[in-house]
């Protein structure tokens, strides 16, 4: 018997417009502004915005627990927001010529791979598998790496230490991102075989 793939989730309410969810919606609405700031060269402002909305990632979870407003929607919004920020950042950095196309392909191919598991999950009444700690670590490292890569670029502030630190974090984060993705695919396959308990 395999470990349970989808542990039962405890939610406090089915409401959509809870305070934590509103915080998450605001974070999502800021994604276009974030990418535009990078493309237009307002790098420090973009990094400040990313840091501010990164902090809200903790705030909405804290509020959900404190106010007893944990919802299924809120649980889905967090990883969606993280992926959108990564997508917005890498595309904007590609437009600026700061990251190579292969780096963008590496990150996006992983999400395409996961998207292919959605039909299988939907057949079992699911929209996603629970986020694992490797995925959280990879996402955190990539979200840390991208602003460092930006600020380390010669077309930005040119901080050499930020350039090297950014690419180290980005490389390790990309590996963790893919390891987590492959684990998600393995669990989706197990689910399809009826091996979940």
UniProtKB/TrEMBL annotation:
The keyword Lipid biosynthesis applies. It holds the Pfam family CDP-OH_P_transf. The keyword Cell membrane does not apply. Keywords: Lipid biosynthesis, Lipid metabolism, Membrane, Phospholipid biosynthesis, Phospholipid metabolism, Transferase, Transmembrane, Transmembrane helix. The chain crosses the membrane at residues 28-53, 84-109, 130-152, 164-185. GO terms for biological process: glycerophospholipid biosynthetic process. Coiled coil: none annotated. GO terms for molecular function: CDP-diacylglycerol-glycerol-3-phosphate 3-phosphatidyltransferase activity. It comes from the Bacteria. InterPro entries: CDP-alcohol_PTase-I, CDP-OH_P_trans, CDP-OH_PTrfase_TM_dom, CDP_ALCOHOL_P_TRANSF_CS, Phosphatidylglycerol_P_synth. It is found in: Membrane. It is a multi-pass membrane protein. One of its GO terms (cellular component) is membrane. Belongs to the CDP-alcohol phosphatidyltransferase class-I family. PANTHER family: CDP-DIACYLGLYCEROL--GLYCEROL-3-PHOSPHATE 3-PHOSPHATIDYLTRANSFERASE 1, CHLOROPLASTIC, CDP-DIACYLGLYCEROL--GLYCEROL-3-PHOSPHATE 3-PHOSPHATIDYLTRANSFERASE-RELATED. This is CDP-diacylglycerol--glycerol-3-phosphate 3-phosphatidyltransferase. It comes from Tessaracoccus aquimaris.
């Amino acid at each position: 018997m395999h470990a349970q793939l989808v542990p039962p989730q405890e939610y406090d309410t089915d409401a959509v417009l809870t305070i934590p969810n509103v915080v998450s919606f605001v974070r999502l609405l800021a994604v276009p502004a974030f990418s535009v700031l990078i493309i237009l060269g307002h790098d420090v402002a973009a990094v400040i915005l990313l840091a501010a909305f990164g902090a809200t990632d903790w705030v909405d979870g804290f509020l959900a627990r404190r106010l007893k407003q944990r919802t299924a929607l809120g649980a889905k919004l967090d990883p969606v927001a993280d992926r959108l920020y990564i997508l917005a950042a890498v595309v904007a950095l590609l437009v600026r010529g700061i990251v190579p196309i292969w780096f963008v392909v590496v990150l996006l191919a992983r999400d395409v791979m996961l998207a292919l598991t959605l039909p299988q999950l939907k057949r079992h009444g699911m929209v996603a598998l629970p986020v694992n700690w490797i995925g959280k670590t990879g996402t955190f490292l990539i979200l840390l790496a991208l602003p460092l890569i930006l600020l380390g670029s010669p077309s930005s502030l040119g901080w050499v230490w930020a350039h090297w630190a950014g690419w180290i974090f980005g490389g390790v984060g990309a590996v963790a991102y893919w390891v987590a993705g492959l684990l998600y695919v393995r669990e989706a396959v197990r689910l399809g075989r009826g091996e979940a308990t």
